[in-house]
Design brief:
This protein is an alpha/beta fold and about 325 residues long. It has eleven helices and 13 strands. The strands form two sheets. Strands 5-4-1-8-9-10-11-12-13 form a nine-stranded mixed β-sheet, sandwiched between helices. The protein starts with a strand and ends with a helix.
Length: about 325
């Protein structure tokens, strides 16, 4: 079954400063701040919420359909996904724009300074769900039975939620770092359109504050509200129940970047396979655990059979 993934496709440029920012920034001179950091180590990763979710869903054996906007510099990313047999036919390329990029500098104390350039992501609203459905009908490809609206351009997120609802495609609303772009009224409207809500614990607090509704009340507006809690696992609120999802302990904690996206891929796969919520949550938790043992959001390479074996080892049964 195919899943329509609306969100960002981005490059992450990660640099390491072999010092501490606090030693280079004079507190009494902030008003004339002018600093430069030598970064002898640098790497570029494939990222973005839609890209990461699609990558993980493909590992699970799912069929991701990415709907995103990228720039004229996206050729390496598109070629990579094509080689992985991930459908890129609905990724719109804007030749005069850059692909969204996060430029992250980390010091020895793990403090980070990040600059984010949205680039082509701001034009994500030019893609429509109706276009995707029509194009897939024309070439007789499977239509999506599930969707997710992940962080993207503000207008794109707004319109894609409404379009999925209009097309009667159930979807997960995953506002993520895009949550501050919407006020309480708008968040209530978007959550009312969605079948499922997914947030981390910080975003959950912000969502409750902005909407004026506690999480349990918000959960009553959707089929399920999923709250991830990092090392504390996750909680799924559904049908008046709270299902506690344990964390899957990882052998090595290397890099948390993209763990939330890996978790969401597990949710999509479980939902499309009609798994119960406990199994779906455990699979999502496992995907986050697999990701955290690798540097970057898309460098783990377990296949579907290996993931199924890891699940059986962790939980004592097969999904």
């Amino acid at each position: 079954m195919a899943s329509l993934i609306c969100g960002s496709v981005a490059y992450d440029t990660i640099m390491n400063f072999e010092g501490r920012f606090q030693e280079q920034i004079l507190p009494d001179q902030i008003h004339i701040l002018n600093v430069a950091f030598l970064v002898p180590k640098m790497r570029r990763e494939f990222g973005g919420c839609a890209g990461n979710i699609a990558y993980n869903l493909k590992l699970l054996g799912g069929e991701p359909i990415i709907m995103a906007a990228v720039g004229g510099d996206a050729k390496p990313y598109l070629e990579r996904f094509s080689a992985l047999q991930i459908d890129v036919s609905h990724i719109r390329q804007m030749p005069t724009a850059f692909t969204a990029q996060a430029m992250i500098t980390t010091d020895l104390a793990n403090n980070q300074i990040t600059a984010f350039h949205p680039g082509a992501m701001n034009d994500s609203h030019l893609n429509t769900v109706a276009q995707v459905l029509e194009q897939r009908r024309q070439v007789q490809k499977p239509l999506p039975t599930l969707g997710i609206v992940a962080p993207d351009g503000r207008q794109g997120m707004w319109e894609h939620c409404h379009q999925l609802a209009e097309a009667q495609i159930p979807f997960i609303f995953d506002p993520g770092q895009g949550l501050p772009m919407f006020d309480g009224k708008e968040l209530l409207e978007l959550s009312a359109l969605a079948s499922y809500l997914a947030v981390n614990d910080y975003e959950g607090e912000m969502l409750a504050l902005r909407t004026g509704m506690p999480l349990k009340q918000l959960a009553g507006r959707v089929k399920a509200l999923i709250v991830t809690k990092g090392a504390a696992g996750a909680t799924i609120y559904t049908n008046g129940k709270e299902i506690t999802i344990p964390v899957v302990n990882a052998a090595h904690l290397i890099d948390p970047t993209g763990c939330g996206d890996a978790f969401r891929a597990g949710l999509l796969y479980g939902l499309n396979q009609s798994m119960d919520w406990e199994t779906t949550g455990k699979l999502a938790s496992l995907m986050g655990s697999i990701k955290i043992t690798h540097q970057g959001p898309q460098n783990h390479q377990q296949n579907a059979a290996e993931i199924a074996d890891l699940f059986a080892q962790a939980f004592g049964y097969r999904y």
